[in-house]
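Hi R.,

As promised, here are both runs. First protein below:
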Amino acid sequence: MSSNTPEILGSEDIRHKIQRLAWELYDRHSKAEQLYVVGIQGNGYWLAQQLVSKLKSISDINIDLFELTLDKNDPKPSEMTISLPTGAHVALVDDVLNSGRTLLWAVIKLMEFHPQQLSTTVLVDRSHKRYPVKADIKGLSLSTTLQETVRLIVEDDKAVKVCLI
């Protein structure tokens, strides 16, 4: 990654966003006795881990964390590996909402379990979506060109920055 890559959020900004996202998740699911947090593999799962850690420090909700494994280039619900109880409260987490395709396929998979409540959380929500999906909870909304990419950079299990490529 080039050192002149435009930084959108630094590590301290990301830490603050994660704290706020955790509180918003808690507000949305505060009546649940059990919450299933599902992170999309890679940085989505890393973000889900951070949120679960914060949630456990601010609430008494029982929380289980799952990693949703899928091919982001060619997601197919039949190939996604996850199993949840019917009627659960579910929080789906990914790092960046770009086109919406990955999040949409993940929602389709999670709907197989007939959740009582399903929310979507992302650190960065781009405005250029090709699919009708939205983030219920987002750390930052960002308008970019179609050619630009937004990335969360994680090194040694710590967020370094969110950058524009």
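And here is the second one, sequence first, then its structure tokens:
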Amino acid sequence: MKNEIDKVDLEILKLLSSNAKISYTDLASKILVSPSTIHVRVKKLEDLGVIKNFTINIDYNKLGLSFTSYLGVFLDKAKSFDMVVESLRLIPQITVIDFTTGQFSVFCKVRAIDSSAARDVLKNVHSIEGIRRTETFISMEELLNDKDSLMDSIEM
């Protein structure tokens, strides 16, 4: 797939990743191509699955969800993986679920109002059949959440 993406596509991705609301006209003027070229390229990137959606970054702290924790999940049996993941997906406070190597089978990010609400999430997680135990990590402060620097590191 990398051969299908060129420098213009990469510039489009960089600009869209920092501002999903930017117009095709503004993109075109920054990259020095026509708006129709931008339209065709964005459609191509969507068709390739490179662009999955256009989204916004929400400051959850300003919505009162300032407590962030991570759960390392140990499974009873490997065959319970799919069922456990589907159950975890149903818990709205779990915003990220990763399949991992190492000591945990699954690693989850939890957003909650406070430690009491996070404890309720943990109780809910512990009720899921197939989970042997969990280990909780409390985030004191998010120090980096920067997709722009990652985009800047990609070269064509």
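A quick note on the second one: The chain has a mean pLDDT of 93. Let me know what you think.

Best,
J.
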